[in-house]
Structure formats: structure tokens, C-alpha cells
Amino acid sequence: MAPENIQTFPSTSLTLGAGARATPLDDLESVVALHQPRVLRFLLAQLRDRDAAETLTQETFLRAWSARSSFREDCSIGTWLIRIALNLARDHTRTGRFRFWKHVSTNAVDVADVAASVPNREGSAEMHLIAQEQVKRIWETVAGLTERQRTIFLLRFLEEMEIPEIAEVTGLPLGTVKSHLYRALNIVRTHHTTQSREGL
Amino acid sequence: MTPELTLQPDNNARRPMGEGHLTEEQFGELIAGSAKAAAAETAPAEAHLQGCEQCAAELASLRECLSLYREASTAYADRELRRIPQVKLPARRPLLFPGLESAYWAAAAAAIFLAALLPMQTLHRRAAQPAPAVAAGAASVSVGSESDEALLDDVNREESASVPAAMQALEDPSGSTASAGVETSNQTLDQRKD
């Protein structure tokens, strides 16, 4: 839960001294507005826990602001933020507390809610229902992947990162990323084709 | 939208290219591979897709499904974003004179430097003047010993004296001091008689 003694971040023009090195994170309000949806989306899919995703999204920007002087601009802000979010998610899921609360949490992401968010393109109601079922099946399949496969799958297909970028964020060799990605994709594909064959 | 709805793909997702369909790796390259991937890498798979409706349909179906997955997840996250409060961070107290922040830091650094320097200077001064300090100490010791000797001499003198100092006035009544006193007292008596 967020501490009580916090306030909305003020205009940074008040806080930055003349001698301070300017970073793209100085305009934090813009950075948050641009990247918060993406960070939250990744954490929701990765953790499947709304409270944890919300808290860690907050924490991601807090960490980014605290460490803004160490941002060397060798990658985009979005990539840097996702890397922070991923590290926080890893730390979070490795605690026993997370494993305990995962069983009793009432704030877990409801897959039906996600499936209901499928945009209704021009098509019949039946098509829309089938599309919802497909999304639901993928969401469940992704939840069943190993942590590493899921992370790489989400970074590629949810965050649309290129493979070298994923290697940078995860700190894994390019070949390892590809291997996990293709394995994850194959699992998803198998479930998907099975579902299609069953007539959905 | 839905080539996938009528798709009846081969059950073996890992079938090798030799059997006439795409391998797992080729499928991965086509769907997840970099858009900038060398054409030479995907050329055989692309060529296969031209002649294999089944693989083409499966590829299109999976692509469509992954696209739906992303759109649904994005829409869900956007809805959640409206539910949760805005990201908040600890507010930093604005400086009285924002342009002088570096001056504040310089002053603080100078204060710390001086605080560390002063004890060092004192130590240096003490270290630089050892001899006078010893001499002064020796002098004070000698002065102290002289005064002690004088005191002892006084004591010895008093003890060796036959008459204590307080009784010396009575030792010689005809002495000048005593006679003067007697004269004074006699004068007083004479005046009273008058």
C-alpha cells in the first residue's frame, strides 16, 4: 500500500538546480502519462494480480525517479522502465508472501474481464464471443508458462519489443531469448490449434 | 477477421519442413522474428507459405489471435488505469532560492570541510611546539619545587625558633616594638588622668 506521506509530484522546474544534469526523466509527469499504461499492462499480465500490479507500477516510477541520474540513455525510457518493472516483479514473486497471497487473493485478474475487453470489430455477436474465448484461452495458456517463457512472450507480443531489446531487458543471451520465445509460442500455438479444431 | 474459425491444422505443431509444413523454428521466425530479419532467413518459409494453404491459414490465425490478445490486454489495463489513483511520488520541498541550490551544497561541503579541518589544525599546532611545552612544564616544576623548599625552610625556621612567632612580642619587653606599645598605653592613661 502506498505510504500516507506522499503528494502529487510537483513541477520539476522547482526542484531541479541549475547545475543538475538534465535527464529525460526530469519531466516526470509526461513520462508517467506516456508510460504508466504500458507498465501497468505488463505487470497485470505478468503477475495477474491487480493490487500487486498497481503497487509495483507506483514503485517502478518511484525507483526510476530516484535513479534518474543513472539513466544513461543507452536505451529508451520505456525499455528502462520495463526493466525496472520486471526486476520488481521478480523480487515480488520470489517472496513467500506472494505465493501465500496468490492462493487467497481476491484481487487476481479475472480472465473473463480481460476477455470481455476484446474490441468488438465489425462482425457478428458469435464471432465476438469466439474471439473472447480465444483470448481467454491464450491468457490461461500464458499463465501456465514458466516465468522466463512468460516474461519473454509478454515482452515480445504484448510490449512488442524486438528480440535484441528483450535480451537487453532480461539480461539473457540472444539465443536463449529466441529459444524460450519459440518454445512459448509453440505452446500457445498448440493450445490455439487444439481450440480451433474443437470448433471454437 | 476469422480465417482461424475454419482452420483445421495438423495436430503435430513441431512437424519438420521435410514433411511439407513449417517447423517450430520457422513458425517462430515468421511470427516472433524481427521485422528486419534477413530475407534469406525467412525466404524458404515464405516460399512454403505460397503453396501451403494450411500453414498460411494457421499462421494468419495465430497472428490474429495474438493481436486480439494484445488489444484485449491493453483495453483491460486502460480500464484498470482509470480505477487506480494517479502515480504519486514523494514531493520534494521547493527550495527558497531554486537557482542557488549549488550554492547550498557548496556551503554545506565547506562547513563539513572546516569541521574536519579545525581539529587537525589544533593537532598540528601541538605537534609543532613540543619543546616550549616541555620547557614550560619543567619551569613550572622548578618553580613549584622552589616554593616548596621555601615553605619547608619557613617551617623549619619556626620550629627551630625558641619563641613562637605569636609570642615574640613578649620575649623582649624592652624592645622597640614593645616599648612603643607601652609608651602608647602610658600616654593613653595619662590623657585619661588629665
Give a structural overview.
By secondary structure, chain A is mainly alpha-helical. Helix content of chain A is 66%, strand content 0%. Chain A has 9 helices and no strands. Chain A has helices spanning 28-47, 50-66, 77-93, 96-104, 111-116, 125-143, 147-157, 163-170, 174-197. In chain A, α2 (50-66) crosses α3. Chain A is globular. The model of chain A is unreliable at 1-19 (pLDDT under 50). Chain B has helices at 24-32, 39-51, 53-83, 101-128, 130-160, 168-171, 176-193. In chain B, α1 packs across α2 (39-51) and α2 packs across α3. Classes of the chains: A mainly alpha (200), B mainly alpha (194). The interface between A and B is large, with 66 and 53 residues.
Short description:
The complex is a heterodimer of chains A (200) and B (194). By secondary structure, chain A is mainly alpha-helical.
Task: Record the SSE blueprint.
The complex is a heterodimer of chains A (about 200) and B (about 190).
Chain A: H1 28-47, H2 50-66, H3 77-93, H4 96-104, H5 111-116, H6 125-143, H7 147-157, H8 163-170, H9 174-197
Helix pairs in contact in A: 1-2, 1-3, 2-3, 6-9, 7-9, 8-9
Chain B: H1 24-32, H2 39-51, H3 53-83, H4 101-128, H5 130-160, H6 168-171, H7 176-193
Helix pairs in contact in B: 1-2, 2-3
Keywords:
heterodimer; A: mainly alpha; 66% helix; globular; disordered N terminus; B: 194 residues; 7 helices; 0% strand
Distance between the termini of chain A: 41 Å
Quote the average pLDDT of chain A. 82
In percent, how helical is the residue content of chain B? 55-70%
Low-confidence stretches of chain B: 1-18, 175-185
Q: Whole-Å distance between the termini of chain B?
A: 154 Å
Biggest interchain interface, per-side counts: A-B, 66 and 53 residues
- Helix and strand string of chain A, N-terminal first? HHHHHHHHH
Oligomer: heterodimer
Number of strands of chain A: 0
Please, how many helices of chain A?
9
Largest sheet of chain B: none
The largest sheet of chain A is: none
Average pLDDT value of chain B? Answer: 69
- Overall spatial form of chain A: globular
Structural class of chain A: mainly alpha
What gyration radius of chain B follows from the Cα positions, in whole Å? 57 Å
> Residue share in helices of chain A?
55-70%
Low-confidence stretches of chain A: 1-19
